[in-house]
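Notes from the 1:1 (GR / supervisor)

We went over the backlog. Supervisor wanted to see one worked example end to end before approving the batch request, so GR pasted a single chain during the call. The sequence is below; no edits were made to it. Supervisor asked that the structure be written out right there so they could see what the output format looks like.
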Amino acid sequence: MSGLAHYRHDLGNGMYFDAFSLSPEISESRLKEVARDLDGKANLNLSELKKIIVKKASVAGLGGLEITASEKGGYSVPEPLKAYREAIAKKWDSEGKFNGPVLIVDGELKVPLKVMQGGYYDFATTKLKDIPAKLLPEVYPEGKTVGDILVDNGISLEERARYFGLAHLMWPSEGKEFLLVQRAKGMGIAADCVSTPGSTPDVQIKKLGLKKPEFGMNHYWSYHLAEEMKDEFKLKWGDFWTGKIDFFEDSKAIPFGAVEIITPLPTSEIAEQAYGDSRVLKEHTILYSMNREAIHAFLQRIPVLYSLIPVLSELL
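Structure output shown during the call:
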């Protein structure tokens, strides 16, 4: 038995959620502090959020997650942001960071997904709320966001690098529980918040045309999720299976697919086997679990990543 810490937090009316520490540095008393600090800070405005995050399509499973390459070729950031893109690359390259391959959605979010090849630095350059003058004060106006710069130059916000990601809707105990995580502070997307785990496919589009039997999108998606579940929870392929995928457009951030992932293991057992693992701790530090009936109460009390709220509303 490890030193795994556990705390149960009362949500009222017989509802509760469980918090499990994945880090030896987070004790039961610290879990209690975290839960109490979060409680009561939810800022729900579902009607407004549904204008920002809109469901666009659904497929029954990974086999329906088809991709096609855009005729536009590779993605390039809008002209006014090219200096910012170069500065980010120079700075991050010097820090040993990597401009990994990403999929940029071209046009409407639908199946099959039409995508362009991009790099992570393209996404970083076009985050709408970031302020380029913090890195290049001699080039960009003080206080102007990326979104402001695009609008000022008559460029649609749709021209940002719409990096495609996956939100993992985790259902332990064969769906009797729902699992959320405290995302680690160093994450490239949605850092240091309560949300689902997730992933960003690193497909290289030039491989899409290959007819070799060892490569195919179904093979890739299975491989991708197997690797993600190993890194996030130390789950093996066979410990979980996938369900339907709903696709959501987020006009302020990235388009994403919300994929259901079901495992027979309870959250307590998942936490036990992932406890203290260095790879897991790069992803998240605390697991939160509740039964389906408590999800609504959780959302009413606990602040979560804003894009998750319409997803769970749709799911419930």
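Supervisor's comment: Confidence is low (pLDDT under 50) at residues 210-215.
Batch request approved.
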